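User: Predict the complex with zinc ion.
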Amino acid sequence: MKSARIPGPNEPLTISESENPKPSGTQALLKVKSEGVCHSDLHLWEGGYDLGDGEFLKVTDRGVKYPVTPGHEIVGTIKAIGENVSNVSVGDDVLVFPWMGCGECPACKVGNENLCDAPKSMGLFQDGGYADYTLIPNSKYLAKLDGVDPDAATSLACSGLTAYTAVKKANQNSPEFIVIVGAGGLGLMGVQIASAITDAKIICVDLDDKKLETAKEMGAHFTVNSKDSDAVKKILSICNDKGADSVIDFVNAPPTVKTGLAVLRKRGNLVLVGLFGGSLELSLVTIPLKSITIQGAYTGNYTDMVELLSLARKGVINPVISKRYSLEDANTALEDLKARKILGRAVINP
Ligand SMILES: [Zn+2]
Ligand SMILES: [Zn+2]
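Assistant: Here is the predicted structure with zinc ion placed in the model:
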C-alpha cells in the first residue's frame, strides 16, 4: 500500500510504501475510494491550534505522534475482512466513523466515542486515509453508503457530522428562532440540516451577501449581514425583540461570539463550533441572570453519522465537491486549502 505521510510539523508529506495489511478478528481492509481534505488536516500539518493571545496548542501535547498518515474522512470498498466480521461484506462501499475511542471511559461506555478521554481518532492518533489502502481496527466503525455518492459522503464523517450534532444541540430547547453564524461550507450544511430536522425559523448571519443568498436558497428564512452596524438590532427584531433561543456559531471568533451573546434570549443556548480561534472577555453576571448555556460541538457519535447518512440518502444535504487530487498531489491539496483556493470541498481519490 501507498500512504502520504506527514514526517513532522510543517514538513512536506512523503509517499511511503508498505505491505498491504491482512485483516484478522474484527478488522477490515478498505481500498480507499475517496478521502476528504479537511481543515483539521492543516492543523495536524502545522502542528497545532492557535488559542489566541499568542498561545499555541501543540497536537503532540494531545498525543499525536509523527510521522502520521492524515485523513479522517474516509470512504472505501471493503477488500478483506477478519474472521469475526459479520456486519459488512467484501465489496461493500462504506464510510468510516473515524472518531474512535478507548471503549472504556465514561463517554465511550454511552456510545460517545468522539468525546473519549483517550481518543484513537483515525488520521490523528492512528494512521488515516491519505493512502490507497487502510486497515480499520473494528468493522463496527463502518457504515454502508447504500447509494450515497462516495466523494460527497466523505465530509459526513466530519464537518457534516459536526453540523448535525450542533443543530441537534441547538434544537434541544424547542427553539422558535435559531441563528446560524457563518454561511461557509459548514454553516450552509447547518442551514440545510436545521431546515430538515427542526421547526425553527432560521436566521443566517455572514458578512458576504452572496453567501447569504445561497443560505436563503438552502432554507434560511432570514439573513442578516454582520457588516451592518445594526446587525444585532435587526436579528433581535426578527426574533420579536426577545432574542434567539439558540445560536450556532460556525465561525467562533471574538466578534461573532459577541454577536451571538448579544442576540441570545433568556434561557438561550449558544453552541460554539468553529475553530477560528481567539479569546474573549465575558460579562459573567449575564450568564446566571439570563440562565444561558454555552456549549461546544465537536464531531458526533456513530449513531449520529448513520442518521446523517440517511438524510443524505434522502437528498437533504448535498456536499459540493469542487476539486479532486491524486495521492501524489496531497501536498498541493493541503497548500490549496491553506491558500483558500478550494470552494466547497476537495477530495483525494488515491
Ligand atoms: Zn475533517
Ligand atoms: Zn474512551
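The chain has a mean pLDDT of 95.
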